[in-house]
Amino acid sequence: MLDSPKLGLDTFQVTATITDTSVVAFTGKGNSPSWMGGDYFEIKGSNEIKPGSGLYKSVTIYGISPSIGSMNRISLGTLEIQGIADGTAEIMYSNPQLGHGPTGQYRVRLDTAHITMKTLPNLILYPGMRPQADLNGDGLVDDFDGNGIINSNDARVFFNAYTDGKLNQNPLLYDYNKNGRLDLQDIIAYAQMFGMA
What we know:
This protein is 11% helix and 31% strand. The chain is mainly β. Strands 1, 3, 4, 6, 7 and 8 form a 6-stranded antiparallel sheet that branches. A two-stranded antiparallel sheet has the order 2-5.
């Protein structure tokens, strides 16, 4: 995220490095910022953590676009990471080059990003289902039937698993109302969050 490029922005490059690739790694994929449209945007991975894995310790993003003019807080893109194991890691940023006009460069201060990785238990709630999952990455289970889609069936499975006592082992994975415990209000909050109520 770039604060206030008052003189516009037409080129950028920055490198991101993960401090502990036993926890998470870059996939070398991501998305360009929405303000760029179809302009040039590239992500290049480096320091592959295992040959052929497609997972990297570092990535560099490059962008060239007609100058956007003055804006407040703009994204320079989204980088995809893959979780590997429980733990914490940081993303350190370096070598920033943010340009405006033919010769202008911004002086940049880069903040470290912190990542906490917590894997979900491989819990299958009912026969014939796949393991439940956290599809949106917020640390809460949202795909209760494990089919890769969040829909009304997940709300039904959530309710049934709650009433059958199948969620008591890891109740904070289902604490949608953030009150520190599992209760019926979590199911209501879940249904509201995903537009089912």
